[in-house]
Design a protein that fits this description.
The chain is 83% helix and 0% strand. The chain has one domain: Growth Hormone, Chain: A, CATH 1.20.1250.20. The longest helix is centred in the first third of the chain and has 32 residues. It starts with a helix and ends with a helix. It is built from 18 helices and no strands. The chain is an all-alpha fold and 429 residues long.
Amino acid sequence: MKFQELKQLRSFIILWLTQSLSALGSSMTGFALIIVLYKSSGSALTTALLSVCSYAPYVLMSIFAGALSDRWDKKATMLVCDTFAAVCTVITLILLKAGSLEPWHLYVLNALNGLMNTVQQPASEVAATLLTPEKYYQKTSGMRSFSNSLVTILTPAIAAAVMSFWGVEAVIAIDLATFAAAFFALLLFIRIPEVPRKEDGGESVLAAAKSGLVWLKNNRTVLLLILFLAAINLIASVYDAALPAMLLSRSNGGETVLGAVNACVGLASLAGSIIVTFLPEPKNGRSRLRVICNTLLISMSTENFLLAFGRTPLVWCIGAVLGWIGIPIMNANMDVIFRSGIPPEMQGRVYSARNTLQFFTIPAGFFLGGLLVDKVFEPLIADLPTDSFIVNVFGSEKGSGAALLFFVIGIAGVAVCLVFRRLLLRPKD
């Protein structure tokens, strides 16, 4: 990156680096708690409910949070929300040290964290836009994908190492330390410009929220993209719920294998982030749409089937690489379409309307995935004769039902991609 670019992106880079560090700490805590909860319960549904509680506030409150975010100071909003989330983490640590941490504690705390994220996320998105000149949108999107990928790579390795030597408490302590670094960097070194706002004449929060939905209704392509991602998120969250259940249960699986597959996801995403940073800009919006559709089709048609039919960690890792290497490229093109197409004064409420529509399928998918593993696919495999075709293909041990589920969601993912590709790329009248 040239010196002039560094100068223009100074505030964004500080925010990006420190928030990424904090995200690593939070991700390590989440990884550690999933392992602890699954080992104590043995239930995919019990573990999946952690994510259900985290994402449920997006469904219930996101559209109103965006309208409020457009009115509130972005920096203050981010600081308050991050502080509240840190308090929830401290409470988790206290309960853990006291030996009284129960699953319901985690559900409540995850819901409160999710609520804060619901308010913080649109403020953060707008802040990134305000700190970035438009000509750097694709580059900074690639940088954000890079850091997200690095978090995915480092999380299992660092969390597992820290847990093995010092326990879950040490993981949470690191999480709090990274929060402190991000908090003071934002407080002391970053000034977020004011958003130029039109006079709203005392517009109510409800009316402001409605205006985000109206904007989407009048912009068909953006709305279709959001609905496309909503369908993909449903499938992806079923995947997320089933993955620990399969990899932690199979005889050639375990914590190390789960960590290795997650690390491969991160490595693939990292490679994709590097690739997108140097890729030439697509010629037009239609070309960006084609990239989005094709990368998701490749992802859906590779990883799920390799997880379904594979019996070794190597095959599962290859699936993770093929499934995720194109995702940063998709995200970068999606990000450019959103940031360049939505006016800054509308971004908070439109992003929140997007969150409501795009993310409401995530808690549903986690719940559905856990339910399908525990109540449908694992019992189905257990009841089949050992010489049946399905058992021969997917296995008979615990975790084989989750493998069968991966086959089902692979078919569903390909179908969704083909339908929306046709809708998004059909010639205009």
